[in-house]
């Protein structure tokens, strides 16, 4: 099922130069939009500064989780096992989790907990990032869904923990 979904999406790549360019752009450069939003929020007000800080810490936690998962679990990327359309070069490391998707969802979820509108826009961009990673031939849909889940849950748990510690420290 995972491969069938991957194939349904990935077989569309290479057919339209404009869409391929857009998917490569999203896959490789969307992180700069996220960085800009984090910087903007840092200087906006105290609540947004907290959201921005939490997003960076959650992203750091997901990077460590990514490293640990890849250390103990290996899932071959789609282009290693099969002949698929690949639009940009990739590492030969494990397909799961998708670092791009982990980071985007960690940041967008952290922002969403404080600023629903901006967080919703970032979530859409996160979904597009995950989709683009399938389009360019680097990840299976299950890699993207799992990474989105891990990134989001990490941010929620970190936010709840930080609020609890903050509440306790004020008592």
TrEMBL record:
Pfam family of the protein (one): PAP2
GO cellular component labels: plasma membrane
Residue span(s) of domain Phosphatidic acid phosphatase type 2/haloperoxidase: 56-159
Transmembrane segments: 21-43, 55-73, 102-128, 140-158
Matching SUPFAM superfamilies: Acid phosphatase/Vanadium-dependent haloperoxidase
The keyword Transmembrane helix is assigned to this record: yes
Species name: Cytobacillus depressus
UniProt KW keywords: Membrane, Transmembrane, Transmembrane helix
Protein name (database record): Undecaprenyl-diphosphatase
GO molecular function: undecaprenyl-diphosphatase activity
């Amino acid at each position: 099922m995972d491969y069938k979904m991957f194939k349904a999406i990935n077989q569309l790549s290479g057919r339209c130069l404009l869409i391929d360019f857009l998917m490569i752009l999203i896959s490789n450069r969307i992180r700069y939009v996220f960085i800009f939003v984090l910087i903007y929020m840092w200087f906006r007000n105290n609540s947004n500064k907290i959201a921005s800080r939490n997003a960076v810490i959650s992203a750091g936690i997901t990077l460590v989780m990514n490293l640990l998962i890849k250390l103990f679990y290996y899932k071959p990327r789609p282009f290693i096992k099969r002949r698929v359309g690949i639009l940009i070069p990739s590492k030969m490391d494990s397909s799961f989790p998708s670092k791009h998707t982990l980071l985007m969802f960690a940041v967008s979820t952290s922002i969403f907990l404080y600023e629903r509108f901006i967080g919703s826009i970032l979530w859409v961009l996160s979904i597009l990032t995950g989709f683009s990673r399938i389009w360019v031939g680097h990840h299976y849909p299950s890699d993207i869904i799992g990474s989105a889940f891990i990134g989001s849950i990490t941010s929620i748990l970190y936010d709840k923990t930080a609020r609890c510690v903050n509440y306790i420290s004020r008592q």
